[in-house]
Design goal:
Low-confidence stretches: none
Number of domains: 2
Mean pLDDT: 86
Strand content: 25-35%
Oligomer: single chain
Radius of gyration: 19 Å
Structural class: alpha/beta
Shape: globular
Number of helices: 7
CATH architecture of the largest domain: 3-Layer(aba) Sandwich
CATH class of the largest domain: Alpha Beta
Number of strands: 17
CATH superfamily of the largest domain: Cytidine Deaminase, domain 2
Order of helices and strands: EEEEEHEEHEEEHHEEHEHEHEEE
Distance between the termini: 42 Å
Helix content: 10-25%
Largest sheet: 6 strands, mixed
Amino acid sequence: MLMPQFSRTQSDAPLTKSVVAIDAAGQPVEKQIACERPLTLYLNWKPIVTLMTLGARPEKLALGYLKNQGFITDIDKVESVIIDWDVNSAAVITSESTEGLEQKLEEKTVTSGCGQGSVFGSFMAGLDQINLPQVSLKQSTVYALLKNLGEYNETYKNAGAVHGCGVCREAKILSFVEDIGRHNAVDTLAGELFINKQQGDDLIFYTTGRLTSEMVIKVAKMGIPILVSRSGITEMGLELAQQLGITLVSRAKGRHFLVYNGAENMEFDEANS
């Protein structure tokens, strides 16, 4: 598959910073803390939103966010992505029509995402056209995946204060990213799949964050039929998973998990072990 050709900058920012704190014994200790910085997204030089982000893979975050919001749909029409940390901006230039952009920007909803995310009127569009495959998932695969994920979360291990998301094929982690908010992390991975023109029908999406409506919708838009979380779910997240046909696995840690939707797709091959 040919990769899209467009001008781009690779400008990952430092993810942690060393600072001195005072411990409970009154002694100075050097610790790592997670960095947080604003990144204002522009589409054809029009400001769209300012995201508070860790700064990992900002190009993919910008593209994934714009795609998930329905502002862009064709990666081949993207002409350039310009990241400039001097002014904390990400500018996406596309030849794709942006007609109706002003109206979409007027319909904004503040979401339940960490760091307070926003979605626009076009975010819910096209959900009735999503047709996800029903894919079987082995209990042993969930256990192996959770074990393999222990090798990731580097920023969380060093500094805390971040969420992590991963795109996986069975128990293999294909890509993993951390950010201040889980919505940023999922947008970054959505941007990665968008650039690679990769289908999600044989993938599993993992997140450390809770499964809200926003998370379920974004994973569905990536075409991924299985969503696994270390955290809990919301009522609307569950209702949308049922509507969209996503296998929803929550509270997954160690050898424990709960299947809230899609239990018929689960193969409990280690139920008695």
